[in-house]
Amino acid sequence: MIGNWQTNLTFQARHLLAIFLLCLAAATSAARSDTSNDGLFEALKNAPNEKEARLIETEIWEAWIDAAPTPELREQVESAMRMRGEYNYQGAREVLDKVVAEAPDYPEGWNQRAFILFLQGDYEASLADIKRVLELEPRHFGALSGQAMIYITQGRAELAQKTLRDAVNVHPYLKERALLIKPKGVDL
Fold this sequence. Notes:
The chain folds into 2 domains: 73 residues, no CATH class; 68 residues, Alpha Horseshoe (Serine Threonine Protein Phosphatase 5, Tetratricopeptide repeat). Helix content is 77%, strand content 0%. The N and C termini lie far apart (78 Å). 27% of the residues are buried.
């Protein structure tokens, strides 16, 4: 009887230890990827010039796309981006609808769909998707600049300027920075 109890306890202890180690490995992996992105954002913020900033920006975009939970979802996002390039907005939207349904915590799925919605003139739906992107990745300068473009289109200049300033705070060499209105007596 004692032998069975000890064997069962040993099995349970090994099982719990295995679960703990799997959780620890997952947490370590997530922390590593967050640290990697943190480093990219820090490098972007401190880029010495626009050329360097563009290289870092490209790395960040690749990291955002690479963060797809599965290779299939990544391919779907890339497929939607190709469709967008071919002006097949409806096809891209249908693909991205599936992506956000399947991976609601994948910011780039929402961001790409927000862009399509913007191109289709559905600004309120685009803003809703941008809101979700920024909940998941508050430093998403693409979503912030898209949000500012919608606000400009809607005639909401003050809100557009605030949003652009937030975007430029993340990415000092953001192309849309040229749309910032310089307050009197302040250098940007």
